[in-house]
Design a protein that fits this description.
- This protein is of the alpha+beta class.
- The protein has two domains: 60 residues; 144 residues, Histidine kinase-like ATPase, C-terminal domain (Heat Shock Protein 90), CATH 3.30.565.
- It has six helices and seven strands; from the N terminus they run ααβααββαββαββ.
- Strand 6 and strand 7 form a beta hairpin.
- The radius of gyration is 21 Å and the shape is elongated.
- The structure holds adenosine-5'-triphosphate (ATP) and magnesium ion.
- Magnesium ion (MG) binds next to helix 5.
- The site of magnesium ion has 5 residues, from helix 5.
């Protein structure tokens, strides 16, 4: 949230300067228009600095490697979403294996990823009559968390993880959620992938290295990668 605020501010300012420059050009006041462009340049520079900072921040954060229960991280992320979920009726289905799924990593950062994915899923269902988000956790060779919604699906799968790619209105999104999230997951040795579901809607899958413990019993028949729409439970 802090990130989007930091970036929304220069974005809004850029919009203002751009409108000003357009007006000045129409009135043939080119010198003044040029200085408006200069201001826009400065703002772009500043946004670049913010994202560079974010990147190095995400890298440094990984020093706190410790084992945690993925189901608990999910519960915290969902409780952070409570205000949004109170505003809109979205059916959230959580499917967890019987045994806890222990992963190694930075729990705070993973919660940040979960919040980003959940926010996107909830946003995506905003025009649905019966908005629904499924969250499925499973344990096999990796810990896999799937977030699936019944929204319209992903428009541009290639651009999805690119910084500043957004289809949302200014103020609603800046297009950094997934770029940052995939950076975090990669830094933790995992993978974040996306696809459109067979019955519509978007499907995001986060895979993280699992802690090898005695109870490796739940994840029979794990296939890797995509195409595992409705695997067990
Ligand atoms: N669940 C989804 N269903 C459909 N499209 C999605 C979904 N999640 C993401 N997208 C698409 O990917 C774009 C980028 O998502 P991303 O989370 O990176 O940025 P954002 O949500 O637009 O803004 P923010 O920086 O606030 O997260 C979205 O604008 C949307 O077009
Ligand atoms: Mg987002």
């Amino acid at each position: 949230a802090a990130v989007s605020h930091e970036l929304n501010q220069p974005l809004a300012a850029m919009k203002t300067y751009l409108a000003g420059a357009r007006l000045l050009m129409q009135r043939n006041r080119l010198e003044e228009a040029l200085s408006s462009f200069g201001r826009i340049d400065d703002l772009i520079e500043r946004m670049g600095a913010i994202t560079r900072q974010l990147k190095s921040y995400a890298r440094k954060g990984q020093q706190q490697f410790s084992p945690f229960d993925m189901g608990e991280a999910l519960a915290s992320a969902l409780s952070m979403m409570e205000p949004q979920l109170r505003q809109r009726q979205v059916q959230i289905n959580r499917i967890l294996p019987a045994a806890p799924v222990q992963v190694m990593g930075d729990r705070m950062r993973i919660e940040q990823v979960l919040v980003n994915l959940l926010r996107n899923a909830i946003d995506a269902t905003k025009s649905e009559r019966n908005p629904k988000v499924d969250i499925i956790l499973s344990a096999g060779e990796t810990a896999t968390l799937t977030v699936r919604d019944n929204g319209p699906g992903i428009e541009d799968l290639d651009a999805l993880f690119e910084p500043f790619y957004t289809t949302k209105q200014p103020g609603d999104g800046v297009g950094l959620g997934l770029a940052i999230s995939s950076g975090i997951v990669t830094d933790l040795g995992g993978r974040l992938t996306a696809r459109n579901g067979q019955n519509g809607g978007a499907v995001f899958e986060m895979q993280l290295p699992i802690m090898d413990s005695a109870e490796n019993s739940t994840g029979g028949g794990i296939e890797n990668g995509s195409g595992n729409e409705d695997r067990n439970r």
